[in-house]
């Protein structure tokens, strides 16, 4: 039995900003290091953008160039892939492997963890958007509109998808979350106005699809970036409702273990 | 005023549906001690520890950590209490050293991470991601994460389960150092030798209750008598030996030249026997002491049959 002094008790939490910064950095590294996540968040959106802009497979509806139609949709897809699919899968497995359980007894408060997760999602999105914008510009994209409207759409879209992703991760088993999150990604990719214009769907179906958060995000971004429209209030309102519902339900129903 | 105990559990009851996991458990842990919570699978060890960690609310009874409520006072307690879960707790893609550095960064005065990595033999796998670590390396990382924040109290849930002998020893040395520096340690274990080696106090739990508690020596003394054996020349006069021994002892020649003494086997008794041998010109060959191990006591108390 030796008194080495190494473990002499001196407990204390690190200052909150430092804890949140450290947690956000770790969460971001985990997101960017995961191969499957990168496939979803970087590879698929980039491929879709390049492929459908250069090869005339999907009728992108409007006159004008395909990239002007596709770029806003792919930006919406990037938000979906990170805030919803990626976050749901990662959080589901963190829950399954006791990461959330262990963090719950660390000095980092729960809201600090959620703040850090949000920061990690936002940082990833900024990287995605920078990359996709660069690709789109290289393909001849000429965006219009008010950057503030774009930012508002992206932020509300992130909030809406985060709420839904966390709701799924906090209530389903990790494997079920993995399967469901990928399925939802695929369905929304096809039916959310990302690469296929909602005009292609029959009227009644379209009316329902337009209420989806992905449709509101892709539609809103397209109105602003392609057509230079003003603030897309209707789409922002749809996203806000989803955000309130999703985050509210997640806060109530999320099980940490 | 007497210092609050580190852990004070009174009448703890915890049910999961129809099953009662903990059934009126009392346990008090003094500061600066190592307490081993011993019990068969399903005895209620982990539930008890997780209630202390604030994961579960008692259905009845009270749990206090440094006099505070583990759930209501969680923000105040979290930096003071280190936790090692039975498994998991780390991002599967995180590297061992990265995760430990991260945990350290959540604390104000962490232990030097490099030192801890060296102490626990994690140097060779510092850059290995968690999912590629061996079970033993994962255990040691979890242990390091529990102590890196310089806590006053640590809960270690089966810290050496599945470890190889070297890693086990490294863990034991660390627990001894924690105690040496005044950290209170509560650990659960299946291993009797671990409790015997490390613990100041052992609590044996079965059926959700503490069925025996005391120092390893006290517990071992509590059971049946211990035995001393030696061989010498046949037909020694045992009457004079019995006169020298304490009243509750026995002495017998089992087979010619093979002797057995029973009673409270302690250094005095051993000295009495050997000096009696010296007086009688007997060389007590193969003198041996059979003391009850904690394992004997444990099996006696919890029964020998295997449980589901």
Automatic annotation (TrEMBL), chain A:
Main location: membrane
Topological relation to the membrane, as annotated: Multi-pass membrane protein
PROSITE patterns assigned to the protein according to its UniProt record, in alphabetical order: ABC_TM2
Subcellular location: Membrane
The entry's keywords: Antibiotic resistance, Membrane, Transmembrane, Transmembrane helix
Domain ABC transmembrane type-2, first and last residues per copy: 36-257
Keyword Membrane annotated: yes
A Pfam family: ABC2_membrane_3
Protein name according to UniProt: Transport permease protein
Gene source species: Streptomyces hygroscopicus
Automatic annotation (TrEMBL), chain B:
GO MF: ATP binding
SMART domains xrefs: AAA
Localization (cell): Cell membrane
UniProt cross-references to InterPro entries, sorted A to Z: AAA+_ATPase, ABC_transporter-like_ATP-bd, ABC_transporter-like_CS, ABC_transporter_ATP-binding, P-loop_NTPase
UniProt keyword Nucleotide-binding, yes or no: yes
Annotated membrane topology: Peripheral membrane protein
Keyword annotations from UniProtKB, A to Z: Antibiotic resistance, ATP-binding, Nucleotide-binding, Transport
Domain ABC transporter: 7-232
Protein name listed in UniProt: ABC-2 type transport system ATP-binding protein
Pfam families, per the entry: ABC_tran
The keyword ATP-binding is annotated on this UniProt entry: yes
Domain of life: Bacteria
């Amino acid at each position: 039995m030796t008194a080495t002094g190494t473990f002499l008790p001196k407990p204390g939490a690190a200052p909150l900003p430092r804890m949140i910064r450290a947690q956000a950095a770790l969460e971001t590294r985990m997101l960017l290091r995961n191969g499957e996540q990168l496939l979803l968040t970087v590879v698929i959106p980039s491929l879709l953008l390049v492929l459908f802009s250069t090869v005339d497979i999907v009728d992108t509806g409007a006159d004008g160039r395909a990239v002007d139609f596709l770029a806003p949709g792919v930006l919406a897809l990037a938000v979906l892939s990170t805030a919803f699919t990626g976050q749901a899968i990662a959080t589901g497995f963190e829950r399954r492997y006791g990461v959330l359980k262990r963090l719950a007894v660390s000095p980092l408060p729960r809201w600090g963890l959620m703040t850090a997760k949000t920061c990690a999602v936002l940082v990833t999105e900024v990287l995605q958007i920078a990359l996709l914008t660069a690709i789109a510009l290289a393909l001849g994209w000429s965006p219009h509109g008010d950057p503030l409207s774009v930012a508002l759409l992206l932020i509300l879209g992130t909030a809406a998808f985060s709420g839904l992703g966390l709701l799924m991760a906090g209530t389903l088993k990790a494997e079920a979350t993995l399967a469901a999150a990928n399925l939802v990604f695929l369905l929304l990719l096809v039916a959310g106005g990302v690469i296929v214009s909602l005009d292609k769907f029959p009227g009644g179906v379209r009316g329902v699809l337009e209420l989806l958060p992905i449709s509101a995000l892709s539609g809103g971004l397209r109105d602003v970036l392609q057509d230079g429209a003003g603030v897309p209030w209707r789409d922002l309102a749809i996203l806000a409702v989803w955000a309130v519902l999703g985050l509210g339900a997640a806060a109530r129903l999320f099980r940490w273990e | 005023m007497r210092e609050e105990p580190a852990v004070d559990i009174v009448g703890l009851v915890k049910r999961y549906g129809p099953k009662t996991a903990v059934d009126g458990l009392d346990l008090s842990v003094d500061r600066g001690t190592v307490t081993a919570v011993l019990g068969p699978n399903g005895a209620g060890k982990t539930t008890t520890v997780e209630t202390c960690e604030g994961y579960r609310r008692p259905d009845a009874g009270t749990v206090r950590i440094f006099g505070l409520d583990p759930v209501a006072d969680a923000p105040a307690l979290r930096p003071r209490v280190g936790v090692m879960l039975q498994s998991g707790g780390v991002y599967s893609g995180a590297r061992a050293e990265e995760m430990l550095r991260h945990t350290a960064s959540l604390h104000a005065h962490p232990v030097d991470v490099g030192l801890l990595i060296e102490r626990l033999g994690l140097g060779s796998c510092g850059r290995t991601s968690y999912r590629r670590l061996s079970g033993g390396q994962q255990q040691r990382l979890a242990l390091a994460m529990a102590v890196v924040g310089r806590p006053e109290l640590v809960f270690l849930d089966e810290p050496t389960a599945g470890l190889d002998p070297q890693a086990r020893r490294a863990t034991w040395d660390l627990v001894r150092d924690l105690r040496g520096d005044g950290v209170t340690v509560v650990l659960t274990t299946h291993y009797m030798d671990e409790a015997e080696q490390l613990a100041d106090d052992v609590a044996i739990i079965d059926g959700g209750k503490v069925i025996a508690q005391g120092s390893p020596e006290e517990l071992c003394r509590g059971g049946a008598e211990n035995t001393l054996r030696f061989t010498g020349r046949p037909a020694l006069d045992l009457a004079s030996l019995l006169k020298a021994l304490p009243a509750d002892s026995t002495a017998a020649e089992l087979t010619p030249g093979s002797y057995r003494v029973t009673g409270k086997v302690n250094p005095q008794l051993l000295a009495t026997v050997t000096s009696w041998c010296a007086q009688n010109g007997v060389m007590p060959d193969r003198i041996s002491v059979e003391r009850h191990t904690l394992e004997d006591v444990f099996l006696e108390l919890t029964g020998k049959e295997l449980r589901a």
